[in-house]
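pipeline/complex-builder :: batch 7 item 3
reading input block
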Amino acid sequence: MGSHPPSSSPLLDSLPAYLRQTPYARLLLRTPEAKRAPLLLPTEWSKKESTDTIALTVNNLQANYTGQGIRDSDAVSIRSNRPIPTQCGVYYYEVTIVNKGYDGFIGIGFSHGSVSTARLPGWEANSWGYHGDDGNCFSGSGSGRPYGPTFTSDDTIGCCINLFNHKVFFTKNGVRLYTAFHGVKGTLYPTVGMRTRDEKVLANFGARPFKFDIEQYFLDEKQRLWASIKSIPPPLDITNDLVLSYFIHHGYRHTARAFAQNVLGAPSHQPAPATTPAPLTRILVDLNEQDAEIKVRQRIAQLVLVGNIDGAIYLTQKHYPNVLANNEKVYFQLRCQKFIELIKRAGGPAGVDMLEDEGELDLDSESNGTNGLNGQSHPDGMDLADPRTPAQVLKEALRCGRRLQLDYGHDTRRQIHQTLVGVLSLLAYADPAHSPVATYLNESRRGQLAHTLNEEILVSQNKPRVPPLEVAIAQSQTVLDELLAQGSAPANLIQIERDLLA
Amino acid sequence: MTAPTPPKTVISFEDWQQRLNSLSFGKSELNQLIMDYLIIEGYKDAAEKFSEECGLQPDVDLNFIEERMKIRFAVQTGNIEEAIERVNDLNPQILDTNPQLYFHLQQQRLIELIREGKVEEALLFAQEEMAPRGEEVPELLDELEKTMTLLAFDPALNFPSPVSELLDYGQRQKIASELNAAILSAESYQSEPKLPSIIKLLTWAQTQLDARASYPHLTNILTGEIDHSSSPSDEAAS
């Protein structure tokens, strides 16, 4: 799994809060540093663009107008150090008016990198701005149109661009104003412009909390996108088929049967529909044909889950003789698990004192057939009542461990070697459950192993390794990842794991 | 002013396969997704067995499913009075707080009376039970009027199409779903399963990416078959 972004890293902490848990953040983290530049957000005003009529202070976040401030030609604007990466889906920044100066001719908005900085944002083509002196918004023209309230010293103005519907709105002191511009496209930079004396503005590119609840807006947009996706009519309602094949795949035999009956027969549920979707009927036929096979797989999985590894090996050998022979790693894992189970049952080598009266350990003896392949195990036994004493169990554990060492001790494969060393070192601790290698005793190992063994059995039967439902999810995720990598804005609003699997 | 379209990226089957294989999703999360689906859709037996076999404890009383399904069944078989009674037994708040839903149920009751040819009864019901409520909400009145036009046609003959929809099985289904969702939300359970969204998401995402790249599609969702040819042939020419 592991596609959850880590909860904290310097890179993540540098992002505005509303973006920290998004696919964009994940993309940023997995992109090597050398290639990360096009994905980074603006963080300050561009030093390169500062002229003698604009001075940057406060870590380049505050811009002070130092020009004559008499005519329109005295106007100056400054862009952020970087353009907005479309991958963030929704971009937002805020500007606080530190000083409105003489007349507060301040414009805030976005512009392309090619637009002249001797103009206020909105006066030129490819620039868009909201102006404080008259509250008008401007786009590619020296005359604006009425938009919102005027703004002055101590007001905080926010600019938001929705990068997939290309709409821009502003906020004033945390309150959202309506849409100012449509069709705002291209490579955009946050931009602020000033033109009368003593004007000073301070930007917040997300390092500090915003006045406006952009997080909520982001969530609302997410919901809207999901609503439009949900309104897509499916080519055919195949949800039930996917569900049924999932049950069959994982060997949930009784569930599969009950589900098929619920859907098809549905005595307590729905009047039988006039026509049953054909695929479901087909799967039901499969279900009947495969029943015995599913039963065996389910049994094997159950044996692993209760820790009866010999039983699982026995049944696998009996019904699928090729699986373990062809999958040495799985067989190795099973043998390690058997050793682990014995250690768990013995309660750790603390019982070794009791061993002494039983004479010398006969480690080389094959008599007990603990090598599961020829083992005389009890396939149906759930090992609920083990009649052996902890000392006897420990003795078997030692024998089992010894044999593992013999068979794999010289194995150079890193994974095998590491597992072997880790597992065998359980013997070194009087109380393995509180040892550094205690993770090997974790119950979840059984689940993982049952899962892997089931997969290998299915593959040996020429069946897919994962059920179609998971293929569909994996395909969606892969497509979304690629979309985002290619700069698709809406892809940042869809998160399978958080939106569907949480 | 649109930027020139960059040439489409071509992603090979091997590359794609590798990406797919690198992903895996939590089994317990998947199980939960499916459990929600079973509960919401009312597949009680399956939900019970699933809980046993995968060890997942459902977070609602599965016995509730049965009552919910009886209500659904009642609507689907046209027994609206029974459905209303059962809902009120379960939780009278549900209909009290959803006047529109209640109106739709009454409307369905009227439709059933008309279907059975009980014209007088239908007229009386419409006048006494429905018209007063409809007057309060004009859009509901429109629906009532539309329903009443059913009376103008001879049921032995075919109804004209916009009106005949009301007599379809789909209409009962629609009301049943609306009621089902209301009961679920009263139980503060999600009223819509997330599982069907996966197929829709897949459709949406693949369409989006088609504009930007040539890549292996999931051609058969039921078998999980991925298209081998990502058809790079037409792009290769450029």
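note: Chain A touches chain B through 68 residues (CB under 8 Å).
queue -> next item
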